[in-house]
Structures are given as C-alpha cells and as structure tokens.
Write a structure and sequence with these properties.
Number of domains: 1
Pfam families: DUF1345
Number of strands: 2
Shape: globular
Strand content: under 5%
Distance between the termini: 66 Å
Helix content: over 70%
Oligomer: single chain
Strand order of the largest sheet: 1-2
Structural class: mainly alpha
Keywords: Membrane, Transmembrane, Transmembrane helix
Protein name: DUF1345 domain-containing protein
Number of helices: 8
InterPro entries: DUF1345
C-alpha cells in the first residue's frame, strides 16, 4: 500500500513538473553527448542552454494555450516543491552567468575564430538565461495570483479580474526590462516578496550582463 502511494506521488510530481523534468533530461543528454573525458565550462553552458531553451519553449507553448481555468487548476496544486524548484532554477541561471565569466576569462589567449565563437556562445547564453528567468517568474506570478496564500495580490488596469498568462508575461518582463511594475499594482505581502526577489535578481542579472558585454567587447578588440 505504501509503495502504491509512493508511486502515485512520484507520478503526480512527474506530471506536474513535466516541463522541468524534460528540460533537465534534455540538457543532461546534450551535456553527456558533447563531453568526452574532460568537463569544460563550455560544455556545461551548452547543456544549460539546451535545458533552459527547452523549458522556455515548453512553458511558452503551455502559456499561449492556457485558459484562466487551466491556470486555476495548476495553481491549486502548489506545494513546497514549487518553491524548491524556483530556488534551484534561479541558482542555475545565476551559475550560468558565472560560467560565462569563466569561459570568457581565457578568450584573449584564444585564436580569433575561437574567441569569436566563445563570444557568440556567451551572448546566446545570456539571452537564453535572461528569458528563462523572467519566464520562470511569469509562471510563479500566475500561480501565486490564483493559488497563493493571499489569492490575488496584483491589480491590473481596465478592471481585469481574471488575468491570463499574457498579463503576467507583461508584468514579469516589464520588471526585467525596466525594473518597475508599470501600471500594475502589487497589493499583497506574499506577492511583494516575490516581486522584490524578482526585482533584485533582475538588477543583478542586468548589471552582470552589462559587465560581461563590456568584457566581451574589450576582449575582441
């Protein structure tokens, strides 16, 4: 009986976090495929790019097809695992930026072709990681809005009471681009905590991107 319950729990977890699991497996397979005996920062970043790219693609596919009812249903299943996966995902995104720094450290010693390839890979990783971070927060804003302890927490203009993913995408990417909430008001403590975390991470991320961009430009001169 206990084994049956455990199997059901694992199946429910796998179904609930299918996009996350598929993306991790995809990145791991690619990493193992390109890695022989030596593990390099470039191979790790390659695996990360695939993993994050798959997650973004699957998430956007679901979001563009989602209805308010489906968002509510998904939000009702929120549990501790969502918070853990959010923390792990943020950590992975930040680690990818650190990996870029390691990869670019030796760019001046490389040949022009190799240096250009590494710079291009760095730009691609930055772009994917940036989109990944704000997509991740988009999903959590929606789930906190419909299933958090303080249901709601965001006040949208034009009297929108049941926002869809497009509304949450707008909110999330506005914070990522402009570090502000624009015309959407935050009205609950739990949502303020999530928004504060997002704003701080966005600031750190954008500052790091600027520093890396300067580094890449200087390295190629």
């Amino acid at each position: 009986m206990a084994d049956e319950e455990r199997a059901k729990s694992l199946a429910a977890f796998a179904y609930k976090h299918a996009s996350f699991i598929i993306s991790v497996l995809a990145g791991l397979v690619v990493f193992l495929a390109v890695t022989s005996r030596d593990v390099s920062a470039g191979n790790i970043l390659f695996g990360w790019n695939v993993s994050a790219g798959v997650f973004v693609a699957l998430s956007w596919r679901k979001m563009l097809r989602a209805t308010v009812e489906s968002i509510r249903k998904r939000s009702a299943d929120l549990d501790f695992s969502d918070t853990v996966l959010l923390a792990l995902s943020i950590g992975a995104a930040l680690a990818s930026i650190a990996g870029i720094g390691i990869e670019l450290h030796s760019i001046k010693e490389a040949t022009p072709d190799v240096a250009l390839a590494r710079a291009g890979a760095a730009v691609l990783t930055i772009l994917i990681s940036w989109i990944f971070l704000h997509t991740l927060f988009t999903i959590h804003y929606a789930h906190y809005f419909y299933g958090g302890a303080d249901e709601g927490g965001l006040k949208f203009p034009d009297g929108i009471e049941e926002p869809g993913y497009w509304d949450f995408l707008y909110f999330s990417f506005t914070i990522g681009v402009a570090a502000q909430t624009a015309d959407i008001a935050v009205s609950s403590t739990s949502m303020r905590k999530l928004t504060l975390l997002h704003a701080v991470l966005s600031f750190l991320f954008n500052t790091t991107i600027l520093a890396l961009a300067i580094n890449v430009g200087a390295s190629l001169l």
